[in-house]
């Protein structure tokens, strides 16, 4: 009876995992297959039917050149690099101050970060838009960069949890040798935060890469398109050409998937090491 119960639970576990994998993988496979089909093939064959020619890159050519995906990549990379660099430095600095300095109001500061995260961003967009426009940032890359650069409580929490595993004796030894607080942070703490930094880069980077609302609102011009808004504009000239839209989707997926596969070991280390306090 126990064996039957164990076998049933095992079957349910793997069946659930299989269904989860299929729910994630099947749409991606269908889009990938469609990206190599001609218009005639797409309309006359099943979504899971293989294309006649897997070396048909015309759809990708249209997506890159006519769909302005290459321009979208250029703008996205600039926004990503600057935003993530600023957010990482700000987040790690805030975590360093909160973790290493004991002062009144530490709890209030953390509460304010948490409260700000609880407020829906859409409710503050009118004020945010007016501020961005007042400083002349509307229609430039600086608008989303500054908004994305804002440190959030998730980044601070990851840095805080990881920093708790770094012994304060490192700081004390450096201070005896005459090191300033900034030098301790820059030369000692920051290099030890590499797994946590990678975790924050992946989590925040995926959010920035996929974000549509902020780039569309603050950079509406076509020449300022990012990957998400460039893909959205396919609904105009390519409103019915789903094979070209599929090629654009694949182009959008590949870089972020490659970055995750490259950084995944640091990502897991950041979570596991950050959850253990020495």
Domain count: 1
| CATH topology heading | MetI-like fold
The helix/strand order is HHHHHHHHHHHHHH
The CATH superfamily title: MetI-like
- Structural shape: globular
Structural summary, described in words:
The chain is an all-alpha fold and 278 residues long. The protein has 14 helices and no strands. The radius of gyration is 24 Å and the shape is globular.
Outline:
This protein is mostly helical and 278 residues long. It has 14 helices and no strands.
Please give the structural blueprint.
Blueprint: H1 2-34, H2 39-44, H3 58-65, H4 69-100, H5 106-118, H6 125-134, H7 142-149, H8 153-163, H9 169-176, H10 181-192, H11 194-210, H12 213-218, H13 227-232, H14 242-274
Helix pairs in contact: 1-14, 3-14, 4-7, 4-8, 4-11, 8-11, 8-14, 11-14
Supply database-style keywords.
mainly alpha, 278 residues, MetI-like fold
